[in-house]
Amino acid sequence: MKLSQGVEWGLHCTSLLAQAPADRPIRRDVLAGHYGLPDAYLAKHLQALTRAGVLHALPGPRGGYRLARSPERITVLDVVEAIEGSTSAFVCQEIRQRGTGAVSPDQCSNPCAIRSVMDQADAAWRDSLRGVTVADLVDRLPPGVRERNADLLAAAGG
Amino acid sequence: MKLSQGVEWGLHCTSLLAQAPADRPIRRDVLAGHYGLPDAYLAKHLQALTRAGVLHALPGPRGGYRLARSPERITVLDVVEAIEGSTSAFVCQEIRQRGTGAVSPDQCSNPCAIRSVMDQADAAWRDSLRGVTVADLVDRLPPGVRERNADLLAAAGG
DNA sequence: CGTATCCCGGATATCTATTATCCGCGATGT
DNA sequence: ACATCGCGGATAATAGATATCCGGGATACG
């Protein structure tokens, strides 16, 4: 079980966009260069974030990406689900209904206890991620980093 | 992000072993047949559970598997970590230290906020799984299933 | 003591998902 | 009109999960 690295990329990029002036979109290659990421592949994840309504993409010259809403209203879960999907990591294959010990379908109207437990843990995981916003992530940056990022983004935009 | 199906297999098998008489081990092919699983591949997961100290394997004729301790003392997390490992699903690649926006290593003595949030969510997931035992899973079986499993296991053992 | 049974560990093959890149298309601002 | 930039599809390469097989060692039974 491993999370896509796109989750890390997406969280860093949305955090960085939260530090940019709202009126000026950031180009994709600037985002990629800022973190040393492959530009073409990062595009896939940014597109996913755009489709999910987390980012807003502006085509054309002086185009780029900006947040679709304020950082206080974007949760970490929003970013994670945009990239990883919202389906539970545990996929129940109903093996209780297979083999010599197969339980009759009548007794399977309720999900089995194993599935319930795994789904409940998945919900706890998502609840935890829903409790943190992108604004919180920016607040927890080491001192000086925000200012430096603002300068770098301004230089790239000019 | 997907959990190995071995987790489902392991949880069902440990639950089934909890329903067997403690003095008689259950052969691997009986476990596989009970749920319609490939015997050879199930062996890999049962070996992992044995190495983790969840199951106890007895070689030789009349050998097989039994629980290494009482079902009340085996948590769902024990089984999950035996098969999936105990490392967090999120692997931080420290991209904050790469690219044009690289943060100096001096400022990276603390883990970044993104990693902290993901690790905290992972802890919440594990805490949830730690709160349920194999005995709880058996208690939540539909009425009649326990008795039928006991009969099947007795027939297979005789 | 010999033999049959059963688990262990390594080697191997297949399949799927992730990672990564490229190119044509459409949209936008100058 | 033209250059810039994001969108989406097609395509490889790589890693991990899935599945199988076989030799070796341990144990029970005759």
CATH architecture of chain A: Orthogonal Bundle
Give the percentage of residues in beta strands of chain A. 5-15%
Mind telling me the CATH class of chain A?
Mainly Alpha
Helix and strand element order of chain A: HHHEEHHHH
Question: Going by CATH, what is the homologous superfamily of chain A?
Answer: Winged helix-like DNA-binding domain superfamily/Winged helix DNA-binding domain
SSE blueprint and pairings:
2 copies of one chain form a homodimer.
Chain A: H1 5-18, H2 28-35, H3 39-51, E1 55-58, E2 64-67, H4 76-84, H5 113-130, H6 134-139, H7 145-157
Antiparallel strand pairs in A: 1-2
Helix pairs in contact in A: 1-3, 1-4, 2-3, 4-5
The structure holds a DNA duplex (30 and 30 nucleotides).
Compact description:
Chain A is mostly helical and 158 residues long. The first copy, chain A, is 51% helix and 5% strand.
Describe this structure in words.
Chains A, B: Pfam families: Rrf2. Chains A, B: One of its GO terms (molecular function) is DNA-binding transcription factor activity. Chains A, B: This is Transcriptional regulator, BadM/Rrf2 family. Chains A, B: InterPro entries: TR_Rrf2-type_CS (IPR030489), Tscrpt_reg_Rrf2 (IPR000944), WH-like_DNA-bd_sf (IPR036388), WH_DNA-bd_sf (IPR036390). 2 copies of one chain form a homodimer. Chain A is mainly α. The first copy, chain A, has one domain: Winged helix-like DNA-binding domain superfamily/Winged helix DNA-binding domain (Arc Repressor Mutant, subunit A). Chain A contains 7 helices and 2 strands. Chain A has a two-stranded antiparallel sheet. In chain A, helix 1 crosses helix 4. The first copy, chain A, is elongated, with a radius of gyration of 20 Å. The model of chain A has no long low-confidence stretch (mean pLDDT 96). Chains A and B meet through helix 1, helix 2, helix 5 and helix 7 of A and helix 1, helix 2, helix 5 and helix 7 of B. The structure holds a DNA duplex (30 and 30 nucleotides).
